[in-house]
Amino acid sequence: MKWNEILPHLTLLGQLGLSLATPVLLCLGGCYLAVTKLHAPLWVYLPGMILGLGASFMTAYKVYLSVTGKEKKPRRGENERSFNRHF
To answer: Which residues lie closer than 8 Å to 23 by C-beta, 6 or more apart?
Structure first.
């Protein structure tokens, strides 16, 4: 195998791992700050974990769509409103 074929897949794997881990860690970090500094109850961690998982799955889905090329990009002029074109 050639390295120029392997490296794009390895970078994609690293990007996917970061896309899954970062939102969860940020939400849990925010929950930790809310519990320690604002004296919020401990049940705050549960919605934080759920929101973090949802954000990480959405980010991973967007990475998947961009890699596979299935993301629908609007064409220029399609559903575009301008000053003179209202309907």
So the answer is: 52, 53, 55, 56, 59
Whether the per-residue pLDDT at 26 is higher than 70: the answer is: yes
> Residue 19 pLDDT > 80, yes or no?
yes
Q: Is 78 helix (H, G, I), strand (E, B) or coil?
A: coil
CA 49/CA 30 separation, integer angstroms? 10
pLDDT, tens digit, 9 for 90 and up, residues 27-62: 999 999 999 999 999 999 999 999 999 999 999 888
Residue type present at position 20: L
Q: Residue 69: how many CB atoms within 10 A of its CB?
A: 7
Three-state SS at 32: helix
DSSP string covering 26-66:
HHHHHHHHHHHHS---GGGHHHHHHHHHHHHHHHHHHHHHH
